[in-house]
Amino acid sequence: MARFGGLIRKLLGIVVLGVPLWGCDDNGAADYQPDYTIKSSVRENSYRFSCPFSTPETLFATYLPLVEYVNARMGGPKLKLEASRDYESFEQKLYYRNLDFALANPYQTVMAVPNGYRIFAKMADDSQFRGLVLVRRDSGVQSVDNLIGKAVSYPANSALASTLLPQAFFHENGLDIKTDIDNRYVGSEESAILNVFLGNAVAGTTWPQAWARFQRDDPLKAAQLKVQWETKSLPNNGWVARDDVPPEVVAKLTEILAGMPNDPEGRKVLEHIMVSGFEPADDATFAPVQDFLRHFNETVREVALP
Question: Which residues of the chain have pLDDT under 50?
């Protein structure tokens, strides 16, 4: 827990018990009203599940079909989808072991392990887990040097594909991210993109899934932006389970997730969330993430390490 606490302190400066700071929940059904609070980890008749990749509203619209698909096949207690305000409050929930299950970015995935979570699955499509740097088409930005002295918007300090990978890219191309650019962490993928559209930042970072969703949902705004650079890829987002969740429940969920591409209804849900499938995973799967974080910590800027 101390290691995960290091991540929170670096992100927040100080952790205040009981204060909701850090997503997905319902915009209609009473059973899925957004719940931002930090609560006891005592389980009632459901398994608490969350993920941090977007605003609560977008995340609910994206991931509720997955939860409903799983719940129709689980038997026993069901997954209960809940929201977090932002990345940091989601990470607080992992730190306090409030969540039974989480679908987390790879950084959060490896940080959860020493805090009493186990990795059991992940999103497929590792080639899609990379950073994108967006600029306005009329910006005139051609080289990384054009960003010097300018604002760059990111979803969150700990977003691996959308923040750390682009910052590593900037570093590899000659920028000192601590002094050469104005780093703005704006809270969500959508906000990072919109800050570029509105001219509040000369560049903004995201990842392919969020960019594809933005293009689908707001094509007129998206048409005024372009991907200027792409980064290398890492293992995709991971599923973690708290270590007191019965192994047979974790095994059942793994089976359901892995079988989705073989089921017409499952394929429809996967298409909705823009991933080809889920696959079993463990600590070794995310070794490249550990290596990246160590190198990033040594060369780009300080981050908490597992």
Answer: 2-6, 8-42
| Ordered alpha helix ranges (H), 96-217 | 106-112, 165-172, 189-197, 208-217
Spatial neighbors of 212 by CB under 8 A, at least 6 apart, are 274
List the 225-233 sheet strands across, edge first: 182-185, 151-154, 203-206, 130-136, 225-233
Interatomic CA distance for residues 27 and 202, integer angstroms: 33
- At 208, give phi and psi (nearest 5°): -55, -40
DSSP state of 162: I
Per DSSP, the residues of 242-283 read ETTS-HHHHHHHHHHHHHGGGSHHHHHHHHHHT-S-EEE--G
Report how far residue 135's alpha carbon sits from residue 206's, in angstroms, rounded to the nearest whole number.
11
pLDDT one-digit tens code per residue, 222-257: 999 999 999 999 999 999 999 999 999 999 999 999
Q: What pLDDT shows up at residue 11? A: 41
**Alpha-carbon gap, residue 34 to 23, rounded angstroms:** 9
The number of angstroms, rounded, from the C-alpha of 196 to the middle of its chain's C-alpha atoms is 20
Structural domains in the chain, CATH included, are 2-125+235-299 (3.40.190.10), 130-233 (3.40.190.10)
CA 202 to the chain's CA centroid? 23
Nearest to 45 by CA among 79, 72, 74, 73: 79
pLDDT digits (tens, 9 = 90+) for 82-120: 988 777 888 899 999 999 999 999 999 999 999 999 999
Q: Point out which residues pair with 123 in neighbouring strands.
A: 278
pTM of the shown model: 0.82
**121 CB-contact burial (10 Å; exposed 0-12 / middle 13-18 / buried 19+):** buried
Q: Give the CA diameter of the chain.
A: 57
